[in-house]
Amino acid sequence: MTSPERIEGHGGELALAALRAYGVTEMFTLSGGHVFPLYDAAHKTGFPIFDVRHEQSAVFAAEAVAKLQRRPGLAVLTAGPGVTNGISGLTSAYFNGSPVLVIGGRAPAFRWGSGSLQEIDHLPLVAPVTKYAATVGSGEEIPGAVAAALTAALTAHRGPAFLDLPLEVIFSAADADALAAPDVPKMEPDPDEVARAAQLIASAERPVIIAGSDVYAGGAVAALREAAEALHVPVFANGMGRGALPPEHQLAFAKSRRTALTGADVIVVIGTPLDFRLSFGDFGGAQVVHIVDAPTQRASHVTPAVSPAGDLRLILSALADYEGVREDHAEWIAKLRMAEDAAKARDAEEMAAETDPIRPARVYGELRKVLARDAVTIGDGGDFVSYAGKYLEPAEPGTWLDPGPYGCLGTGMGYAMGARITYPDRQVCVLMGDGAAGFSLMDAESLARQGLPVVIVVGNNGIWGLEKHPMRAMYGYDVAADLQPELRYDDVVKALGGAGETVAKASELGPALARAFDAGVPYVVNVLTDPADAYPRSSNLA
């Protein structure tokens, strides 16, 4: 029997060798002395390091890589405040099912309790929002700990993992067995549950599919199309499920969701939770089929008619192969198409509005003219990004990034970094509210310094739109809901090494966007939008 290959070096070298075995190809970080050996290992082997100005951006960049490339993303954070600054990013990855690994520095174990710099036990803080969290006790344990963490992160339902390395562990020399390629288990669904789901969908008169992010994350886009086409069921999408069917597909719908959800008799929700975005799974009299990638994702607050759990490719392929009696859904699809076309006509009028101040709809009307089919669009905001969800229609899967159900603002610059690194030659466009700009716009400097051009469209209405208007409706007044009007976010980014301009008239939008996509640097189109134009939606906070 051949002995396993041994690797030796300091803790950073052992960790990096293990990370490479699991397909990690870059590191996102903010410099910190507790993790110097990881930098040393990367520097000596040509492993790319991308650094940021706030640790949350490092985790969001790692999450963007994990989402877009469907493999682990890595963030390296120094001890104490480095880790705590990254917890919002970890939590977003947890809610989004993103396989992110955060490696944290840690004060030395041999002096624990003596008051070392940045000494705090991270695990109780991160354990609730990770699938795996551990402190590594010795250098020899590092490769195995990396393997355990990343296997957990990649196993459905995917999610983040955390390791911290005490100072003496990461700086000391050791040797250990090298890792083989990962073997991530695949979950087989219960065939009886899948058969019940198929029969229910096929026999429905007015079925609807809602496809979520896990369809893309689980590599099930092709299987979704096969199932929808075989059963002839209209498809709506949210999150990274958007673009799973291109907008021109006969079964792709986006604008007629209200008609669909109020008229359907069977609603098939695939790869997304029954949360506030989907009325908490309450669709009146419709039966719900909830298809998830792991039993842990089954809803506990409602009881679906059936809920198959397992590898989504296997489940959807089995639905496509269903051989039982099927209802003809042509009349139902025609009804939805009429509603869809009517809504598109209304949207076209709104997106062409010549009003000044500029209405957000017009911003997206102009963007639709310049965005390529494979452009990556990133939403970081509340009110302004809500319009993006309404007016933009991703044409390809894996091209839409938003904060997800946790709703954490500040993702924009980190997601932009991860997207630009993933796709060096594609358009990358961040759609940012002026409120959200306060969380991460400083990291435009990180993009500029490291030669990572993106376009940043700021919807600048000078208010927190999702708070100001509802608060005035509830109380007759508002507080803590105003921002500085007409703030020059473009000048901020210019000072950070990028470029940009402010747009105050609708007729100026098209030329400004054209300049932005040709600029070759981080470029802000700072659009002064109408503060009275609030996105119409009801509250689903409860």
Automatic annotation (TrEMBL):
<comment type="similarity">
    <text>Belongs to the TPP enzyme family.</text>
</comment>
<dbReference type="InterPro" id="IPR012001">
    <property type="entry name" value="Thiamin_PyroP_enz_TPP-bd_dom"/>
</dbReference>
<dbReference type="Pfam" id="PF02775">
    <property type="entry name" value="TPP_enzyme_C"/>
</dbReference>
<keyword id="KW-0786">Thiamine pyrophosphate</keyword>
<feature type="domain" description="Thiamine pyrophosphate enzyme central">
    <location>
        <begin position="194"/>
        <end position="319"/>
    </location>
</feature>
<feature type="domain" description="Thiamine pyrophosphate enzyme N-terminal TPP-binding">
    <location>
        <begin position="11"/>
        <end position="123"/>
    </location>
</feature>
<dbReference type="Pfam" id="PF02776">
    <property type="entry name" value="TPP_enzyme_N"/>
</dbReference>
<dbReference type="InterPro" id="IPR029035">
    <property type="entry name" value="DHS-like_NAD/FAD-binding_dom"/>
</dbReference>
<dbReference type="InterPro" id="IPR011766">
    <property type="entry name" value="TPP_enzyme_TPP-bd"/>
</dbReference>
<dbReference type="Pfam" id="PF00205">
    <property type="entry name" value="TPP_enzyme_M"/>
</dbReference>
<dbReference type="InterPro" id="IPR029061">
    <property type="entry name" value="THDP-binding"/>
</dbReference>
<protein>
    <recommendedName>
        <fullName>Acetolactate synthase</fullName>
    </recommendedName>
</protein>
<dbReference type="GO" id="GO:0009099">
    <property type="term" value="P:L-valine biosynthetic process"/>
</dbReference>
<dbReference type="GO" id="GO:0050660">
    <property type="term" value="F:flavin adenine dinucleotide binding"/>
</dbReference>
<dbReference type="GO" id="GO:0009097">
    <property type="term" value="P:isoleucine biosynthetic process"/>
</dbReference>
<dbReference type="GO" id="GO:0003984">
    <property type="term" value="F:acetolactate synthase activity"/>
</dbReference>
<dbReference type="InterPro" id="IPR045229">
    <property type="entry name" value="TPP_enz"/>
</dbReference>
<dbReference type="GO" id="GO:0005948">
    <property type="term" value="C:acetolactate synthase complex"/>
</dbReference>
<dbReference type="GO" id="GO:0030976">
    <property type="term" value="F:thiamine pyrophosphate binding"/>
</dbReference>
<feature type="domain" description="Thiamine pyrophosphate enzyme TPP-binding">
    <location>
        <begin position="380"/>
        <end position="527"/>
    </location>
</feature>
<dbReference type="InterPro" id="IPR012000">
    <property type="entry name" value="Thiamin_PyroP_enz_cen_dom"/>
</dbReference>
<dbReference type="GO" id="GO:0000287">
    <property type="term" value="F:magnesium ion binding"/>
</dbReference>
